[in-house]
UniProtKB/TrEMBL annotation, chain A:
Record GO terms (molecular function): ABC-type nickel transporter activity; ATP binding; ATP hydrolysis activity
Primary enzyme class: translocase
Substrates-to-products reaction catalysed: Ni(2+)(out) + ATP + H2O = Ni(2+)(in) + ADP + phosphate + H(+)
Phosphoprotein keyword on record: no
Top-rank taxon: Archaea
Protein name: Nickel import system ATP-binding protein NikD
Gene Ontology biological-process annotations: peptide transport
Known partners and oligomeric status: The complex is composed of two ATP-binding proteins (NikD and NikE), two transmembrane proteins (NikB and NikC) and a solute-binding protein (NikA).
Organism expressing this protein natively: Natronobacterium haloterrestre (Halobiforma haloterrestris)
Composition bias type Basic and acidic residues, residue spans: 402-415, 422-438
Main location: membrane
Localisation: Cell membrane
Bilayer topology annotation: Peripheral membrane protein
TrEMBL record, chain B:
InterPro entries per the UniProt record, alphabetical: BPD_transp_1_N, MetI-like, MetI-like_sf
Domain ABC transmembrane type-1: start-end pairs: 97-315
CDD domains, alphabetized: TM_PBP2
Protein's name in the database: Peptide/nickel transport system permease protein
Cell location: Cell membrane
This protein's GO CC annotations: plasma membrane
One of the protein's GO biological processes: transmembrane transport
UniProt family annotation: Belongs to the binding-protein-dependent transport system permease family.
SUPFAM superfamilies referenced in this protein's UniProt entry, alphabetically: MetI-like
Transmembrane segments: 12-31, 103-124, 136-160, 192-211, 252-276, 296-322
Organism this protein belongs to: Natronobacterium haloterrestre
Length: 438, 328
């Protein structure tokens, strides 16, 4: 572990890392027990890059995204780790009060109070969600909701150094007053006008009329554009996009990705793109992390992961993409189920071993991250990076017993309810690379 | 659907409901035992007198003739005369409406003022002592019978401590307001307020408990929706997420419930009005029932049906105003 850390710090001296996540663990304390949704996760995200996180449902992608945004809610909790954000202004502002949180220009967001983290939302970090239809309030106009996001930014830039959460400035009394006096409303006219500009910017026709419409009057693709506009309202440094195209039609998916790419090019914003769709990754990302069972099992540049991958899970994900050009024959699903993330059921081994075609005795120890061939960023959590597969050391078939285990990891995905889990389980074996729908 | 179409449809439906209520009441009267003429006359009246009354009231006609006569009367605004007091039913109903509305509105205000903050606290501090307290309160409120609660309030706050008066109120809101407007003395208004407090608390307790539960569960439901996370993600202050977004959406179904409760209360809270001797429709209904004063009973039930239908239409209109998804 320490070896890897040293590695990364010495390697990336030229490119500035905007976000350094180390040893992040997010757990859910449910009645069934402790669920390790994210365990000991390291991420280095460079300013201006598009970093992709790919994995099956329940691999901890969404929880990772929400951990970055500090949107984990009980019974979930970030139990360990650091999320260091490079922002010299913020570092100066909190240095006196929380010296332990500051390391040069970096601030460990988990060491500062929640209201400081909250003050970064919208203006430093912003997020796009999977399902645009449910991510807008159905009873307020789209324009009003966008204007709220603009107002957050306006108020924040009115006092740039303040790390006080907006919550403290905006109390219940202010809200009560605003219901009586229209002039005391949170959202100003200027913000409403800016919201219309934003709608226009993301390609919504007739933005003036559209701003006064409600979410249900928009199509899914339009609404996702509006959500992107909303996320851009605060001119954030980092945009976390959690499955931004999953709920959309295939043709619309491409448009949304183009829009994101365009905006990224214009603003130089850093994007953390979370998806189960390797096609999206290939199209958008500079670097990729493959997640499995709450950890990153393989990471590197696009070439590392697509062409020089080492981990059999990455291989499996790529094998389940339909190849329209080559005659590769039938899709190769990964056998078995997403593993249980219940702490009591997680053994200290490679979590993929029970589904792995190349499982060996070595896999009974939890592997560290090894350097792998390819770019300097290429790392993999698999013994195959160090030694070749040997038939003689292979684990006997059925070593882990019945591989069909109950998917007790439903808590790993905060949006997933019990009902969602059932059909998904029935649908196994895995097709959840999502196919290459692009 | 346009507002006009909506109104026309709902009003036609409403007329049908009211007609149904009239017909059922008439049917009940027809099958109930006892000769109305005997009820109207003193004991020992001569047979001729009874026959005369029967003719005058049209009771010697076949039942369908009586039914259409009654319907015709209602359409032309003639609701008949009370058998007991021989006064016009219309006047007897109208004079009791203000007291009933005052009590219904007061009870609803009690419910809103207490229940919504309590529900919000409960939902936002889930599984903490304040939540348990609110839950206990609402369980008690829902399961306490009104007559008992009313009697206890009279006993403790009225008789023992004398904080609030007991007995029939001396002045209604209308008169009190008139006095205030004319003389500038708010004395009558205070008297009115002191008299209405205990009945309003009694009647309001059940609704308070109910609305607390609804607010709590509705708000917990709303808080779990993705748009709440999305609002937090865009940096919106918590107060706005909680009240401008979540509470507002929670209130939409609750307003429907409140409206329907108001409809129920329009019929007069029979038990509460009886316990407090409150001069509303409920008390008059009980009196009419005791005396088997059918025309008065029918008149009161007709008013209840009309009030219920009107309030329902208003609530539906309000609901579609508040919820843009059903607006067009």
């Amino acid at each position: 572990m320490t070896e890897t850390e040293m590695d990364t710090t010495t390697r990336n001296t030229n490119a500035e890392e905007i976000l350094r996540v180390s040893g992040l663990s997010t757990r859910f304390f449910t009645q069934e027990g402790q669920v390790n949704a994210v365990s000991d996760l390291d991420l280095r995200i460079e300013r201006g890059e598009v970093f992709g996180i790919v994995g099956e449902s329940g691999s901890g992608k969404s929880v990772t995204a929400r951990s970055l945004m500090d949107l984990i809610e009980p019974p979930g909790e970030i139990t360990e780790g650091k999320i260091e954000y490079n922002d010299p202004d913020l570092a100066d502002a909190v240095r006196d009060d929380y010296p332990q949180a500051v390391d040069g220009e970096y601030v460990d967001l988990l060491e500062v109070p929640a209201d400081v983290r909250e003050s970064l939302r919208g203006t430093s970090f912003s997020m796009i969600f999977q399902d645009p239809e449910s991510s807008f309030n159905p009873t307020l106009t789209v324009g009003e909701q966008l204007a709220e996001a603009v107002e957050v930014q306006r108020r924040a830039s009115a006092r740039p150094r303040s790390t006080r959460a907006k919550t403290q400035d905006y109390t219940l009394a202010s809200f009560a007053l605003s219901t009586v006096l229209p002039s005391r409303e949170y959202v100003s006219e200027e913000s409403r006008e800016r919201a219309i500009e934003l709608l226009e910017m993301v390609g919504i026709p007739d933005p003036v009329e559209r701003a006064d419409e409600y979410p249900h009057e928009y199509s899914g693709g339009m609404l996702q554009r509006a959500m992107i506009a909303q996320a851009l309202a605060g001119e954030p440094d980092v945009l976390v996009a959690d499955e931004p195209t999953t709920a959309l039609d295939v043709t619309i998916q491409a448009q949304i990705l183009d829009l994101l790419a365009e905006i990224q090019e214009e603003t130089g914003m850093t994007i953390v793109l979370i998806t189960h769709n390797l096609g999206v990754i290939a199209r958008m990302c500079d670097r990729v992390g493959v997640m499995y069972a709450g950890e990153i099992v393989e990471r590197g540049t696009l070439e590392d992961v697509f062409d020089d991958h080492v981990h059999p899970y990455t291989e499996g994900l790529l094998g389940s993409i339909p190849d329209l050009e080559g005659a590769r024959g039938r899709l190769q699903p990964i056998p078995g189920n997403v593993p249980s993330l219940l702490d009591s059921e997680m053994e200290d081994r490679c979590y993929f071993a029970d589904r792995c075609p190349n499982a060996m005795e070595d896999c009974l120890d939890h592997p560290p991250e090894y350097d792998a061939d390819g770019s300097a960023d290429h790392e993999v959590r698999c013994v195959l990076a160090e030694r070749d597969y040997e038939e003689s050391r292979a684990l006997p078939e059925g070593y882990f017993g019945e591989t069909e285990r109950p998917a007790a990891d439903k808590h790993a995905d905060p949006d997933r309810t019990e009902e969602d889990v059932q059909p998904e389980r029935a649908e196994q074996p895995v097709d959840d690379s999502g196919g290459d729908r692009l | 659907m346009s507002l006009g179409k909506f109104l026309v449809r709902r009003i036609l439906q409403g007329i049908f409901v009211i007609w149904g209520a009239i017909t059922i009441m008439f049917g009940l009267r027809a099958v109930s035992p006892g000769d109305p003429a005997n009820l109207m006359l003193a004991e020992g009246a001569t047979q001729e007198l009874v026959e005369q009354v029967r003719r005058e009231e049209g009771l010697d006609q076949p039942i369908y003739v009586q039914y259409f006569d009654y319907l015709q009367g209602i359409v032309t605004g003639d609701f008949g005369y009370s058998w007991q007091s021989n006064r016009e039913v219309e006047a007897m109903v109208i004079e009791r409406i203000p007291a009933t509305i005052e009590l219904a509105v007061a009870a609803t205000i009690v419910a809103i003022v207490i229940a919504i903050p309590l529900g919000v606290i409960s939902a936002t501090r889930r599984n903490q002592p304040s939540d348990y307290g609110a839950t206990l309160f609402s369980l008690l409120g829902i399961s306490t019978p009104n007559f008992w609660l009313g009697l206890m309030l009279i006993l403790v706050l009225g008789v023992w401590t004398g904080v609030f008066p007991t007995g029939r109120r001396p002045v209604g809101l209308g008169e009190a307001a008139m006095t205030f407007a004319q003389t500038g003395s708010p004395g009558d208004l205070f008297t009115w307020l002191r008299y209405i407090t205990l009945p309003a608390l009694t009647l309001g307790t059940y609704f308070t408990a109910l609305i607390t539960r609804l607010t709590r569960s509705g708000m917990i439901d709303e808080l779990g929706k993705p748009y709440v996370t999305a609002s937090r993600a865009k940096g919106l202050p918590n107060v706005l997420v909680r009240y401008k977004h979540v509470l507002r959406n929670t209130m939409i179904p609750i307003i429907t419930v409140l409206g329907l409760q108001m409809g129920t209360l329009m019929g007069g809270a029979v038990i509460t009005e009886t316990v407090f001797n409150w001069p509303g429709l409920g008390l008059r209904l009980i009196d009419a029932l005791d005396a088997r004063d059918w025309p008065l009973m029918q008149g009161i039930i007709l008013f209840i049906a009309v009030a219920f239908v009107v309030i329902n239409i208003v609530v539906d209109g309000l609901y579609s105003y508040l919820n843009p998804q059903v607006r067009e």
